[in-house]
Amino acid sequence: MIAPRAAFPHIRQDLAASLVVFLVALPLCVGVAVASGVPAELGLVTGIVGGVVTGLLRGSTLQVSGPAAGLTVLVMEAVREFGLPALGVLVLATGLLQILMGALRLGRWFRAISVSVVEGMLAGIGLVLIAGQLYSVADAEAPASGTERMAGLPGTLVRAAGDTETLAALGLGAGTVAVLVLWPRLPRRVRALPGPLAAVALATAAAAAFSLPVATVEVEGLLDAVRPPGADALGLLADPALYATIVAFTLIASAESLFSAAAVDRLHDGPRTRYDQELMAQGTGNAVCGLLGALPMTAVIVRSSANVRAGAKTRAARVLHGVWLLVFAALLPAALGLLPLPALAGVLLHAGWKLIPFRGLLTLWRGERGEALILVATAVSIVVLNMFEGVLIGLGLSVAKAAWGASHVRLEVMDLGAGPIRARLSGNATFLRLPKILDSLEALPQDRPVELDLSGLHHLDHACRTALENWAERHSAAGTAPVRLTSR
User: Fold this and answer.
1) How does it sit in the membrane (predicted)?
2) Higher pLDDT, 15 or 283
């Protein structure tokens, strides 16, 4: 018989890491669910599936999956528009679409998405998440429009300052954020306890000790919260509006997971991520979550980096973290009812702030201002419009910038004073550069013959070719020798 230690040579490291990841994941699973407007237990269900189901599958060895703050805004909007029963259908369809894309080997193509678009997407999510949680702490209804939400926030906070109960909630939320900010600066022994868990535990103790009048998590029970999609929910697939949300879920969940995988690979020297298999693993997890009516999952960099830094060596660590979440949800469900909502809002406020890449934006602005503008435009579009349209705008700007850069063209003019003027085009002549090309050619003297050399062009599109031929006819019509065009 093979000894357990021989069969699992890294079980000690994986067991220790799984406990750390469980302690990090617990408050985040609950907080993301509450912020999404769904029962807290559904966040735990997604965390359990992310560990036990996705954790067992091949793809990325040390990456940990679960409910993510990055999808909170989109889930909240979907639940508000289509209702909670539709959530399972949306997540199930997302999972099946991810499995299909992985089977078609499209996972690697997500790495081609501009980093500026992804960071802009996360920044926009962070801004909306921060605003939403501030309204939540102030016990106020957040406006549906992103612009109105941002504009109304100062007035909401001023009105909240005059209410004793709201002030208590604001103070508890602010205290939670302060603990999270200061936690990394504390001694290493203290930091052995994950910051989110410590912040929520301290806030819970303070609320109980001082009898603060703050709302706590509503507990339904794990089995009561699970709502598999029924026939009525599946019938919502007839609504075309549902498909835009499914595409948004799929795009954002896949991009966040695969970008997280690339980041996690830089943290360890173990096996590298196989992107297509990881996309199928994420899809399988989301399909299971959809069948249970739970939240969508993504790979989460916070939990994944905690897993690596805690010394995890194999997939066993992330699987065990899902087991601990299941044990907690089964044996201690009443403990959720003790958690103050302002404390969970504070955790998500901190998470939203960390989604905004301040340093990355500054670096981009210094080195590549076009990319920095794409990041800002994506974030602002998400805040002003919505998630799906904001990401599409970011992708469109990214493609336009790439097309503009790829269409670099150079016009060299040689005039020896006698004989024909020699002009040479090199690079890529596309319609994007056509106004510049024509302006330069039309500035040439009309009473001189011209030889236009096109042999240096790597690409000449139809619009440019037609425009150059028309210019040659106009120039020749002035009574000079016909324009001579030479190419390869």
Assistant:
1) Multi-pass membrane protein
2) 283
* Burial class of 270 by CB neighbour count within 10 A (0 to 12, 13 to 18, 19+): middle
> What's phi and psi for 450, nearest 5 deg?
-130, 135
pLDDT for 3 beyond 50: no
Question: How far is Cα 452 from Cα 420, in angstroms, rounded to an integer?
Answer: 10
CA distance 93 to 367: 40
Q: Name the nearest CA neighbour of 225 among 31, 38, 431, 379.
A: 38
How far apart (Å, rounded) are the C-alpha atoms in residues 402 and 131?
Answer: 33
CA distances for 384 relative to 62, 130, 387, angstroms: 36, 14, 9
Residue 365 has pLDDT above 60, yes or no: yes
Greatest alpha-carbon pair distance for the chain in Å reads 98
Please identify which residue in the block is written with the tokens 């509006």.
241
Nearest to 277 by CA among 76, 57, 53, 34: 57
The two tokens of residue 123 are: 């920044």
Q: How far apart, in whole angstroms, are the C-alpha atoms of residue 311 and residue 297?
A: 24
Give the chain's end-to-end CA distance (angstroms, integer).
74
At residue 296, φ and ψ (nearest 5 deg) are -70, 155
Say what the pLDDT of residue 91 is: 96
The predicted model scores a pTM of 0.73
| β pairing state of 409-414 and 65-66 | unpaired
At 460, give phi and psi (nearest 5°). Answer: -135, 110
Bridge-partner residues for 410, per DSSP? Answer: 426
Q: What is the DSSP letter of 340?
A: B
What pLDDT shows up at residue 409?
82
The contacts of residue 336 (CB under 8 Å, 6+ apart) are 30, 40, 41, 217, 219
Write the single-letter amino acid at 256: E
Query: Which of 189, 46, 77 has the alpha carbon at shortest distance from 142?
Result: 77
**CA–CA separation, 250 and 93 (whole Å):** 9
Strand partners, 422: 414, 451
The rounded distance, in Å, linking the Cα atoms of 2 and 8 is: 10
Q: Which of 89-98, 229-238, 320-329 has the lowest mean pLDDT?
A: 229-238
Q: Which has more confidence, 50 or 237?
A: 50
- Please name each of the domains of the chain with its CATH number: 9-400 (no CATH), 409-486 (3.30.750.24)
| Local structure of residue 219 (DSSP, 8 states) | P
State whether residue 343 is helix, strand or coil.
Answer: helix
Which residues have CB under 8 Å from 238's CB, separation 6+? none
Six token digits for residue 257: 């997971």
Which residue carries 């060895």 as its tokens? 61
Q: What is the pLDDT of residues 261-291, one digit of tens each?
A: 877 887 788 888 898 999 999 999 999 999 9
Q: How many CB atoms lie within 10 A of CB 4?
A: 9
Q: pLDDT by residue (tens digit) across 289-309?
A: 999 999 999 998 778 888 888
